[in-house]
Specification:
Layout (H helix, E strand, L loop, with lengths): L1 E7 L7 E7 L2 E9 L4 H11 L5 E5 L4 E4 L2 E4 L1 H7 L7 E2 L2 H17 L9 E4 L6 H9 L3 E4 L1 H6 L8 H15 L22 H6 L2 E3 L2 H6 L9 E4 L4 H9 L4 E4 L3 E2 L2 E2 L2 H12 L8 H11 L4 E4 L7
Parallel strand pairs: 1-3, 1-4, 4-7, 8-9, 8-10, 10-11, 11-12
Antiparallel strand pairs: 2-3, 5-6, 12-15, 13-14
Protein name: Quinate 5-dehydrogenase
Length: about 300
C-alpha cells in the first residue's frame, strides 16, 4: 500500500484519513495539521522521510507564480528540506495542470459559460493556472492578491497588472513567515467579514478556500464557490450562507475534498519519479488515466437558486 501524508500548518481539527484505490494501487491518504507550529511540522516531515511515498505541504505554498516567474517561500523551503529522501510537494505543479483542465471540463462537459461572468479570484499567484484559464474563457476577473493576502484594498484587473505587482512585492513576501500571509492553525476556523463589496459584486468566488473564508460575509446568496479543500463542516457553512453551487478542483473522497498538495503526492507516487522530473504532459497523462473530475454540488433548494 502506498502512503501519502500532507503535513499542514493548518488546524488539526481538519485532520482526515482515507483509503482509496487508484489505478489498482491502494493508497492511504492522510492530512495532519500542526496548528501553525512550524517546528512541529519540520519534526513531523523529518520523521516521515523515507517511510512514506510522498509528503504534501499543506497550509502553505512552496512556490507562487506570476508573469512567467516562480518565487520560492523561504520558510516553506526549510520544511521541504527536512525530507531529503521522500518527495515533498506543495500542489503547485498540479494546480498548473489540473485546475486549467477543470475550467475546460466545466465548459465542455457541464455547459458552463464564463464569458462575461464576474469572477473574484482571492489569490491568483497561488493558482496561476486557474487564473489564466479563466482569463482565456472570457471571464471578467478581479484579482484579490493584495486585498486578501496583504489586507490592502486594491483590486487588480488583469494578468499584466498582477505580474507588475508581483515583481515588486513577491521578492519581499517570500521571505516573511507564512503566518503573516495565510491563515494557519486556529485562524483557519475564524471568519471575520471584511471587503464584502468584492464578494457581493462577484458571481463566482474562486481560489484557496482559507483565503475565501478569511473575510467571508454572512450571506452569499446565489454565489458559486470554485475552490479546493473543503470539509463536510465547510459545506454546511456554505449552505447556511446560501451559496448556490460548490465546485472543488479535487475530487471528493469520503465527503472531503483534499488539497492539491495531497493529490500531487498521489500522482508522484504513481509515477515513481522525482517531482522535478515530471512534466506537465506527465501529469496530464496520469490525470487522463485516473479520470479525476471536479466535484460539482448544488447546495440549495430551488427557492434559493
Amino acid at each position: 500500500m502506498k502512503r501519502v501524508v500532507s503535513v499542514s500548518l493548518g488546524s488539526s481539527k481538519r485532520n482526515h484519513t482515507v483509503r482509496v484505490d487508484i489505478l489498482g494501487e491502494e493508497f492511504s491518504v492522510e492530512r495532519i495539521g500542526t496548528d501553525g507550529d512550524v517546528k512541529k511540522a519540520m519534526e513531523m516531515i523529518a520523521s516521515l522521510d523515507g517511510k512514506v511515498n510522498a509528503i504534501g505541504l499543506g497550509g502553505t505554498d512552496l512556490y507562487i507564480y506570476a508573469g512567467g516567474r516562480r518565487y520560492t517561500f523561504k520558510e516553506s523551503l526549510r520544511l521541504k528540506n527536512c525530507a531529503p529522501h521522500t518527495p515533498v510537494v506543495d500542489g503547485s505543479s498540479l494546480k498548473n495542470t489540473l485546475e486549467r483542465r477543470v475550467i475546460e471540463y466545466l465548459q465542455k462537459e457541464k455547459g458552463f459559460s464564463f464569458a462575461g461572468t464576474n469572477v473574484l479570484m482571492v489569490s491568483a499567484v497561488d493558482r496561476f493556472g486557474m487564473a489564466e484559464a479563466l482569463h482565456e474563457s472570457g471571464a471578467h476577473l478581479v484579482f484579490g492578491d493584495l486585498i486578501f493576502g496583504l489586507g490592502i484594498p486594491v483590486p487588480l484587473y488583469s494578468l499584466k497588472a498582477l505580474s507588475r505587482v508581483a515583481r515588486i512585492v513577491a521578492p519581499i513576501i517570500v521571505n516573511l513567515p507564512i503566518k503573516y500571509l495565510y491563515p494557519t492553525g486556529a485562524k483557519q476556523d475564524i471568519s471575520s467579514p471584511k471587503f464584502e463589496r468584492y464578494y457581493q459584486e462577484a458571481q463566482i468566488i474562486a481560489g484557496d478556500f482559507h483565503f475565501i473564508k478569511k473575510h467571508m460575509p454572512p450571506l452569499l446568496k446565489g454565489k458559486t464557490i470554485l475552490t479546493n479543500t473543503v470539509t463536510p463542516a465547510d459545506v454546511e457553512d456554505l449552505r447556511r450562507r446560501q451559496v448556490k453551487l460548490l465546485i472543488t478542483t479535487t475530487p471528493e473522497l469520503e465527503g472531503r475534498s483534499f488539497g492539491t498538495n495531497v493529490m500531487e503526492g498521489v500522482l508522484v507516487s504513481l509515477a515513481e519519479k522525482d517531482p522535478d522530473q515530471l512534466t506537465a504532459q506527465d501529469y496530464e497523462k496520469l490525470l487522463d488515466q485516473i479520470g479525476f473530475n471536479p466535484r460539482v454540488e448544488y447546495l440549495q433548494d430551488q427557492k434559493y437558486a
